[in-house]
Amino acid sequence: MKKIKNCKDSYVTMTELVLPNDTNGLDNLMGGRLMHWMDIAAAIAAQKHSNRIVVTASVDNISFSEPIRKGNTVTISAFVTRAFSSSMEVYLEVVAEDIPADKKVHTNRAFFTFVAVDQSGKPIDIPQLEPETDFEKELYEGALRRRQLRLVLGKRMKPSEAKELRSIFDMED
Ligand SMILES: CC(C)(COP(=O)(O)OP(=O)(O)OC[C@H]1O[C@@H](n2cnc3c(N)ncnc32)[C@H](O)[C@@H]1OP(=O)(O)O)[C@@H](O)C(=O)NCCC(=O)NCCS
């Protein structure tokens, strides 16, 4: 297995058609169904990066600004932005498309964190990631800050240890 991987090694794209059973009383896609599809796409990306079994450790806030209609297609793209020891951040973008009307809308973006585990569920080291494009480099740089924020919010890191967040919150030593 490669020791260093690139974002393109984990790139996944998944398309689903919104069927009646996926919708609410307004014929719009249910948020939970979209999150289920996003979890699957992100898990595949994390597996491709790590070549391991992966589990979802956290999901950053997802907002639903645009309804997605019955009959639309939903295309989810996902790739790993940065690898830490056993955990990795996955970036997702969701595009809804009304194909007959030839209309596409970017509806959501999100970051999920996955942890690679062995057969007994114990976290295991993964290959590091080297970003290539400007966009990948921007996501890579921000990943450390986002990781510290989610670990602080999850009470897994003391705010005083979150060095990358100091500039945002103007924290003192
Ligand atoms: C995620 C899980 C494997 C972490 O195990 P753990 O024993 O707490 O392991 P550690 O404390 O050593 O953490 C392992 C990694 O997970 C990361 N992690 C743990 N909780 C996290 C969280 N809430 N958000 C982001 N990362 C998290 C840690 O930062 C660490 O990353 P690193 O190795 O890259 O530094 C474990 O909590 C688990 O199995 N959770 C359930 C996962 C699951 O079932 N998901 C589906 C939900 S239905």
UniProtKB/TrEMBL annotation:
State the UniProt keywords alphabetically: Hydrolase
Q: Which domain of life is it from?
A: Bacteria
Sorted alphabetically, which Gene3D superfamilies does this protein's record hold? Hotdog Thioesterase
What is this protein's record name? Acyl-CoA hydrolase
Q: Which GO terms describe its cellular component?
A: cytosol
What processes in GO biological process is this protein linked to? acyl-CoA metabolic process
Any keyword Phosphoprotein? no
The UniProt similarity line reads: Belongs to the acyl coenzyme A hydrolase family.
Q: Does the keyword Repressor apply?
A: no
One Pfam family, short name? 4HBT
Query: Which ranges carry the HotDog ACOT-type domain?
Result: 8-120
Q: Its Gene Ontology molecular function terms?
A: long-chain fatty acyl-CoA hydrolase activity
Q: What is the lineage of its organism?
A: Bacteria, Pseudomonadati, Bacteroidota, Cytophagia, Cytophagales
